[in-house]
Amino acid sequence: MKEINPSLPPLSGIRVLDFSTLLPGPLASLILAEAGAEVIKVERPPQGDELRSYLPRFGEDSVHFALLNRGKRSISLDLKDPEALDSLKPLLQTADILLEQFRPGVMDRLGLGYEAVKKINPKIIYCSLTGYGQKGPQAHMAGHDLNYLAETGLLSLGATPNGAPVIPPALIADIGGGSYPVVINILLALLRRNRTGEGCYLDMAMSDNLFTFMFWAIGSGFTTHQWPQSGKGLFTGGSPRYQIYQTKDGQFLAAAPLENKFWNNFCELIGLAEEFRDDSKSPERTLTEVAQIIQSRTAQEWEKIFSGQDVCCSIVTTLPKALESEHFRARGLFDRQLLNHAGEAIPALPVPVASNFLKKEPVATYPGLGADNSLIQEPSSQ
After folding, report:
1. What burial letters (b/e) apply to 322-347, b meaning 16+ CB within 10 Å?
2. Which residues of 233-269 are buried (b: 16+ CB within 10 A; e: fewer)?
3. Which member of 18, 49, 61, 174 is catalytic?
């Protein structure tokens, strides 16, 4: 085993061929890139990754493409060209990881399926990311984040009082069901390969991974046979201890004093009458009383009352204010910079990688389409 320089990021020397587009796969490979891996995007000419065309722009491409592809390289190649596979072979031979996001069977038809690539590189870690997985009745169905949330039951757990599900403010399936599990399993596969010398195939389905988010609802349903519903469960709006309350000035308080020690402090500070503090008797009645009290003061007044107290309460803030938060700034979340090709800079997208594992590149750009096509002709340059 070759010596590893402890001063380098943990994935230094790891090469990733990334055939994915849009969000789930590119975010996964961004995390790997920020931890030191060399990520080479394989893009289809003449447009490349569809996300490049989205608005708003940051230089020549979409700002969202730029954020997700910081520090990567790009080759432009028509995979339907009969000579494409021969062009890619040198890169396939030197790659550690291949990530693709096509529907099942597409890579096989292109001559780039796992079995074909395994013959070229037996140690390859080959990851296929799809909405529904490689097998099953819905494997070939098209879908997006909202579809996966709807079909797994997660969307039904968050609804307005009239029962209509609410569109989540985050792409939970793409990121939580796709990007993060992909990174976890690729790292597990690398660890196993270090021990056994063997590569493997990873079948990752975004919809599969959403059920983990519903551990509370699943556990409650299987044991009590009373499945949590929106507005009625502990984490779905039915508890006064996990609730969003409106303040006098139309702002909102996110209150999560779940444990008794926090709940008791909360009740004391808001002056809740003793008869309502045991919320097991009538959660609805307690919730109504708490809501009336919270609505009697402004957000600023409650912020002052709860300041320094163990009550797990927060005023709902806006994203611009959060980006300027003294706490998050102190954590260095936005210290790293993303440059476009004109030299303009914005904060890079924070990724869930410990600061001591990040590449020592506080400023980086994103690749132009085909900017690294020389890699196809010069595979031995590294």
Report:
1. eeeeeeeeeeebbebebbbeeeeeee
2. bebbbbbbbbbebebeeebebebbbeeeebbebbbee
3. 174
Token reading at 140 = 């070939």
Walk me through the domains of the chain, giving residue ranges and CATH numbers.
Answer: 15-206+333-381 (3.40.50.10540), 231-246+252-315 (3.30.1540.10)
pLDDT tens-digit map of 76-113:
999 999 999 999 999 999 999 999 999 999 999 999 99
Q: Which of 41, 36, 64, 34 is nearest to 52 (CA)?
A: 64
Question: Are 244 and 254 contacting, i.e. CB atoms less than 8 angstroms apart?
Answer: yes
Whether the link from the prior residue into 240 is cis, omega within 30° of 0, is no
Give me the pLDDT at residue 180, please.
98
Give pLDDT tens digits for 25-68.
Answer: 999 999 999 999 999 999 999 999 999 999 999 999 999 999 99
Helix (H/G/I), strand (E/B), else coil: 362? coil
Q: What is the pLDDT of residue 159?
A: 85
Alpha helices (H) in the chain, listed in sequence order:
24-34, 63-68, 84-94, 106-109, 114-120, 145-151, 172-174, 180-196, 215-224, 260-270, 274-277, 283-294, 299-306, 319-323, 326-330, 374-377
SS3 readout for 242-258 = CEEEECCCCCEEEECCC
- The question of whether 208 is a catalytic residue gets the answer no
pTM here?
0.94
pLDDT at 379: 41
Low-confidence ranges of the chain (pLDDT < 70): 1-4, 377-382
Q: Please report how the helices 180-196 and 24-34 are oriented relative to each other, as an axis angle in degrees rounded to 10.
A: 50
Calpha distance 100→93 (Å, rounded): 17
Told to judge if 225 belongs to the known catalytic residues of this protein, a careful annotator would answer: no
Dist CA 122 CA 64 (whole Å): 35
